[in-house]
Amino acid sequence: MRTLGVAILGLFVGLAVGFLVFSELVGRLAARDGQVDAPWTFVIGFGPQLLAVAGAVVAVLIDRRRRNR
Fold first, then answer.
1. Once rounded to an integer, what is the mean pLDDT over residues 26-50?
2. Which UniProt keywords apply (predicted)?
3. Nearest to residue 11, comparing CAs of 51, 64, 66?
4. Of 19, 30, 32, 55, which is the most buried if we count CB atoms within 10 A?
């Protein structure tokens, strides 16, 4: 049950970081004259979801490593 909680926490933290990084930073850097080109729309759109999954995986790995000590 603890692993599930850590995974959910990592998911939300990864999603928050993903929105900050991709929506704010990459979105502002990729926008030209108020428009974003086609490849960047996919990066900006799917980036937060990928970081959310990565955050969940990293959180579980960190939790397992700390629990084994």
1. 86
2. Membrane, Transmembrane, Transmembrane helix
3. 51
4. 55
Burial environment of residue 65 by CB neighbours within 10 A (0 to 12, 13 to 18, 19 or more): exposed
| Pair of tokens at residue 26 | 């990459």
How far is the C-alpha of 58 from the C-alpha of 1, rounded, in Å? 17
8 pLDDT tier (thresholds 50, 70, 90): very high
Tokens of 29: 């850097």
Write out the DSSP string of 13-50. HHHHHHIIIIIIIIHHHH-BTTB--HHHHHHHHHHHHH
| CA atoms of 7 and 49, how far apart (whole Å) | 14
* pLDDT of residue 56 exceeding 90: yes
> What six digits make up the tokens of 53?
């999954």
- Taking the whole predicted model, whether its pTM rises above 0.85 is answered as no
